[in-house]
Predict the 3D structure of the following.
Amino acid sequence: MVHTLSVVVFLKRNTTDMEEGDKVADLFRRADRGDRSALARLISLIEREKEVLSFVPEGLRTKGTNSYLIGMTGAPGAGKSTLTDRLIEWYRRQDDEVAVLAIDPTSPFSGGAILGDRVRMQSHALDSKVYIRSMATRGSLGGLAVAVPITLRVLQLVSFDEVIVETVGVGQVEVDIVGSSDSTIVVLNPLWGDSIQANKAGLLEIADVFVINKADRDGVRQTRRDLDAMLDLSEPKKWRPPIIETVASDGQGVAELGSALAAHRAFLVDSGEINRKREKRASEEFTKATLRLFERSLKNSGDFVRLHQSVKEGEIEPTRAAQEVIDKILRN
Amino acid sequence: MVHTLSVVVFLKRNTTDMEEGDKVADLFRRADRGDRSALARLISLIEREKEVLSFVPEGLRTKGTNSYLIGMTGAPGAGKSTLTDRLIEWYRRQDDEVAVLAIDPTSPFSGGAILGDRVRMQSHALDSKVYIRSMATRGSLGGLAVAVPITLRVLQLVSFDEVIVETVGVGQVEVDIVGSSDSTIVVLNPLWGDSIQANKAGLLEIADVFVINKADRDGVRQTRRDLDAMLDLSEPKKWRPPIIETVASDGQGVAELGSALAAHRAFLVDSGEINRKREKRASEEFTKATLRLFERSLKNSGDFVRLHQSVKEGEIEPTRAAQEVIDKILRN
């Protein structure tokens, strides 16, 4: 019923859209068969804010539910890229296909060398079962907030067994993106006690698995103690995040991390939590896309343009002007 | 003309608002006379997304133009808080009143100890001419994007000579906030060459003054060379960001930083750039407030609520549903 309505609205808008839709559906089919240039074109369409997900061919529509979405975040320099690299190897040994979406920051402060990261991941460049793509946060926040979740869903739809999303920046947008994955890995280094204490709440909220990377350095035991104390103090949940020690540079602990992820995934499935997570992602995508479309429509609003001018000339308070725009648009 | 219209709309909405407006105007007057509890109440109203700036008393309205807005950002652990502390001292020696707004991250990865920072800044707690407030990024991004610029304007209006905004997180939202100040300080440490190279564009865009803090460590000359090379390669602007070396922990280089800021401020005034910056901030505030009000109005939209349900049940693609909501709202 809702679908029918959707198609009617859509046909009324522009009949040439339908041809576009056929082309997009074809890109999906080709991407699903492993055609990387078709996949790249799909993602480019998403970056240009073209609608693609309405044109997923029927056969693919439910496929994404078998794909596992992993988020990774942590301080700059904590070793996330090396760890991602090791995780790719781990899943490749099981003959899985793996995609990585790396969110590059606008900010100049990554700590870790971004170019170095990309180069490092090139070790998989000749492996046709691995796809690595980065997406810059430069430009509109609204655009990014919508493009990233859609790209992740596309990667899940076109047959990747694991999709890993990794951020370099550690601001709110970046944490939001990673935190809504099926499983979220939070990467720390030894001797991070202070900041962990200070930021307790934020950490607990998003971590499903903690990794203490560079675990060959001093302070591992203290960091583990801090994390454990923190988890003890927090509200008990059904899943207590395990703490895995790794030395990503030589692969130490990666198998344990792989097992911890598998255990969390099993927990998500058994508890039905995985459906709740997907529903939450769909819900956020809907809200963000609505806001984004509204934002894009504003430049065609006469009221907005006129009041924008008054704001620039200092004739009216920006927030008061915003209230007027909204009153006019919603009253009409 | 626009103002009259604004008042009419406003009176129609709710007559009791007018009394609220009187109260807010009174808070402004008291805050301007140095009443910190009145100022705290104003900021709490902003955090709860109440409109305050429409009620600025006439006498205060143009006052903020003499206030200087400084943004500070940099990698976690680069020493931003200590530097802020030293800048406060520097301006206090000129008998200026200084306000600091510290944006705390949702993210657990600050690197520097946030609690420690707040404690450190307590050295000014007994100085009635210094006001330090932190604002958490937790919660809605839309809310934060609006609350921070409004708070900064309020601090400028109520007689602070300098207003410093400092972020701990280094994601896109945080960089946006700091980057629209009058003068933006980017704090680096020695031996950051790689990431600077990699993130060239982002750095150049927001920095008005570079600080190499912890300049008593090795690698200062290399970092300076990297920065200089980067600036040479970039499109020439009228203002070339100077590179200041500091050791914030013992105050070294802070006077030079103060002078560099004064020079940049003079440049902004002489070139008229300061008005362009203010206009840009007002313009962004207007757009963000419009989006935020729209976001808040969505939960009262029957179409939004109904389609939200369909999205959750997997009956319709989130982005397609978003298009329907916008079509209905804008068509009405």
